[in-house]
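Anyone? Bumping this.
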Amino acid sequence: MSHSTENRGKDRSKDDRGKCVLSLTVNGKPETVRVYPMERLLDVLRQELGLTGAKEGCGEGECGSCSVLMDGELVNSCLIPALQAAGTNLTTIEGLAEGPQLSTLQAAFLECGGAQCGICTPGMILASWHLLNKTTEPTLEDIREGLSGNLCRCTGYMQIVEAVVQAARRRASA
Amino acid sequence: MRSDPADYELIAPGNLQAVVSLLADEPGKWLPIAGGTDVMVLCAAGKLPARNLVSIWNLPELRGIEISPEELRIGAGCTYTDLREHEIIAGEFPLLASAARWTGGIANQNRGTLGGNIVNASPAADSLPALLVYEAELILVSGRGERRMPYLDFHTGYKKMKLAPDELIRAICLGRRFSNYFHYARKVGAREAQALSKVCVAALGRLRGGVTGVVIDDVRIALGSVAEVPLRLTEVERIAKGKPVEPELVQLTRKMTAAAIQPIDDIRSTARYRSAVAGNLVAEFLQQLRASGKTV
C-alpha cells in the first residue's frame, strides 16, 4: 500500500465515525449540522454554516476576535467544543442588523471610525452589545472593562470606546 | 502542531450522577471539561494527552451557590461571572470577587469555572490565594461517595493534587466568619486586564486593643506565582499575631516572606523581582491593616 493510499484510508475512516448531530439556533434560525463534538464552535460557524463574521485571531481566548453571544452571554467561540453548543441560541455579528438597517451600535462604530482592518470589529461589537444589554448607562470604566478581552491592533481604542459611548447615548434617548 | 478534532471523543451525559458513574467505570480514561478555557487551549496547541472527554459544563448540580448561616457552598461549575455577580461573595468574600474580576476578560469569565481553576492548578491562578486565606474546604465526589478536605491540603506540587482519577470537585465551601476582617488583594502583572500575575496576594486581618496599644489579633496571608503551589505564609502569620504593626515587624515579615517563597525566572518576571514585590506587598498589607482600624 502506498503512503498516499494509507492517508486516504485514514481520512475516509475519519469522515463520519465520531461525528455527532448538532442542532442549535443561529441568529434566530434553527440549524442542524454533523460535526465532530470537539470541533471548535468557531470552525462550525465559519466552515459548516458559512458565517465568516467571527474571526480567528489568537485561537486561545486572548484576543476576542471570535466572540459570539451564546444564550445572551459573551463567549470566545474558539474555546467552545461544538457539542457544548447543542441546543443553544447563538448570535453572531451577522445577526445584529435588521435587513439592510444596521443596528445603532454598528452605525456608531462606522461613524466614529471604530473599525479599520476589521478583524477585531465583530468581536468588539458583540462585546459592546453584551455590555449595553447588561448596563444601560455604562461609564468609561465599564466600557474599558467590557472590552478588555478584545484586542485591536489598528485604530487603538479611543474610537472604539467613543462608538460605544455614542451608541449608549442614542439607545438611552431612543 | 494543531490538533485534529476527529482524534477526540467528547460526550455530555447531562447530569452529575451519570458523569460520576462514567468516571467510576473507567477511572483515568475520561477528562472532565467544563467551560474549556484551559482544556481547549491545550487541545488547540496539540498538547492535550487525553483523547476522551466528558462535558461537565452547566451541570445543574455543579452550578448553584447554596447559602446557610454558617457557610457558602459554591458549586464547582460556577463561573467567574457567577462569583462576581453574587452579593454575599462581594460583601463577605471580596478577595474572591476581586480574583474573579482579574481573571481573563468578560468572555472567559462567562465560561471559566472555579472548580476548573482549582484543577488546572496553575501556581499563578488568582483565585487560589483567596481560597487559602478564607480557609476554603473542597467537597470531592466519586462513585465511592463524597469527602471533604481543606483546600490547603489539596495542591501538593506543581500541577499535583489529591484528586483520584474517578473524582470531581463538587463544591467549594467558605465559612462565613470573616466579615469583620480587613481584606486585602493585590495583583501585580504586566497590564491591568488579561495578564497573568507576576505576584498576587490575598490577605485578611483584624486588630485588637491591648494594654500597650493596638495589636494584630488575627492575620492570614497567601501568595500566588511565587512557588509551585499557592502558598500560605503561616510563619509570617504566627510572628505577626499579638504584635503592633511597627517598622520592626514590617521589616521582619518582609525578610520572612522572601525566605518562605521559591519564585522562579520565567517569561513573565524574574525570581528577584518577585521576591522584592512579595515582601513589599506583605508590608503594604500590614500598613493598610493598621490604618484600617478593623478591631475585634
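Late reply, but here is one note on the structure posted above: DSSP finds twelve helices and 14 strands in chain B.
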